Amino acid sequence: MKMLMLGSGTSTGVPRVGNDWGACDPEEPRNRRTRVSVLISNDAGQRILIDTSTDLRQQLLAHRVDHLDAVLWTHDHADHCHGIDDLRVLRYGRSNPLPGFANTYTVSQLKRRFDYIFDGQHGYPSIVDIKPLGQTPLIAGFAVEAVDMPHGPARSTGYRLEADGATIVYATDFSEITSEMIACFDGADILICDCLRRKPHPTHAHLDMALELAERTQAARLVLTHLDKSMDYRSLCQEVPEHVTVGFDGLEITA
Q1: pLDDT at 6 over 90
Q2: How far apart are the first and last CA of the chain?
């Protein structure tokens, strides 16, 4: 299995509008962060996209992504889903819509906001066939397990993907570690984890919480994502243990 980090930034990206880099060195290219999204592929070349970030078009162009086999959504917040229209081009040449999955609430919210994506409109075909996550789904060649995660007053979905004898977990936008999360994520080869900043935050994991989740799940490798402007890449690399990788746009890792 391979993981390509399409975007590694928080909801406003780095830099923020106004050329606000915060504590991030603007001369370090890995500090330039688009909104979070990842692409997971297996040995057969099947690809699952997790989240359609606001920056999806530029991410797909940057990495020459020209096909997908399925899309998963973690939740309905704008930075995770408002790039959904950029899936239109990936529908071209297909005989059927792209398969899409999310929890029941997220499915309802996406359908309400983007009905034309799922129902078609004015003679144009539907782009995505979205369904609520099942109990034991096999999606595009991956065994996928999902878990509900607290995200402040909202909820987000964490994913465990297995293929080719490896496991990758994607857990972004959570503010509390639950026993259900520990059980779902246990023993992952790669844990891609929310890490907004160093100080605690009411709706996101901070550095100590990300490290705690990796320890409690015995993850072989922790990859930090959803980083804000306080998280300078080089400074953070010097702080974290050897098994921790600071994520950046374009990072590729094989499990």
Answers
A1: yes
A2: 5
* Percent of the chain surpassing pLDDT 70: 99
Query: Which position has the token pair 């299995």?
Result: 1
Which segments of the chain does DSSP mark as H helices, in order? 56-62, 78-81, 88-91, 104-113, 115-119, 179-185, 207-217, 233-239
Q: Tokens in use for 155?
A: 């909820």
Residue 11 in tokens: 């909801």
Domains parsed from the chain with CATH numbers: 2-254 (3.60.15.10)
Query: What is the per-residue burial (b if ≥16 Cβ within 10 Å, else e) of 71-88?
Result: bbbbbbbebbbbbbebbe
**Predicted model pTM:** 0.96
Q: Are 242 and 212 in contact (CB under 8 A)?
A: no
Under a CB-based contact definition with an 8 Å cutoff, are residues 28 and 214 in contact?
no
Residue 134, pLDDT above cutoff 90: no
pLDDT of 122: 82
| pLDDT at 57 exceeding the cut of 80 | yes
* Torsion from C-alpha of 199, 201, 205, 211, nearest 10 degrees: 20
Task: Output the CA–CA distances (angstroms, integers) from residue 17 to 33, 83, 116, 146, 164, in the order listed.
Answer: 12, 18, 30, 34, 41
Backbone angles phi, psi at 156, to 5 degrees: -130, 160
> Do residues 57 and 7 make contact, with C-beta atoms less than 8 angstroms apart?
no
